[in-house]
């Protein structure tokens, strides 16, 4: 198996793409406490909730709600939007808040490019949300 090299420049490019996808879905400056939902049908949806907002950053909680087997855990992640850098990155994945850039010592099933994989998954998720693009603003506090 050939070893792949993952560069910081590639990660930054993915984060920039994710920023533009999120901006098209919920805007660049969503209000604190607001929720958005993208639904393909009544059984599967993606929920976005603004849980923190600061001068240059916004933090979103993203949850995938779908009919799945009971043994399959739900997918939840936190994404930080850096408005000044125009980037968005996954900062927490299913309650795992330790996301190093490159893993030197692996803990359990983590791989060396895990941060890259999480951000690529976010990109795919946002792409699908844009494809369906039935967005409903759920609530605003």
Report what the structure shows:
- With 141 residues, the protein is of the alpha+beta class.
- It has one domain.
- 27% of the residues lie in helices and 33% in strands.
- The protein has a six-stranded antiparallel beta sheet with strand order 5-4-3-2-1-6.
- A hairpin with a 4-residue loop joins strand 4 and strand 5.
- The longest helix is centred in the first third of the chain and has 19 residues.
How would you sum up the major sheet?
A: 6 strands, antiparallel
For the termini, the CA-CA separation is: 51 Å
- What spatial order of strands do you see in the largest sheet? 5-4-3-2-1-6
List the total number of helices. 2
Radius of gyration: 15 Å
Average pLDDT for all residues: 79
The poorly predicted ranges are 100-104
The quaternary organization reads as: single chain
Which percent range fits the helix content? 25-40%
Rough shape? globular
Sum this structure up briefly.
The protein has 141 residues and is an alpha+beta fold.
How would you summarize the topology of this molecule?
Elements: H1 8-26, E1 35-41, E2 44-53, E3 57-66, E4 75-82, E5 87-93, H2 114-132, E6 135-139
Antiparallel strand pairs: 1-2, 1-6, 2-3, 3-4, 4-5
Features:
141 residues; alpha+beta; 6-stranded antiparallel beta sheet; 2 helices; 27% helix; globular
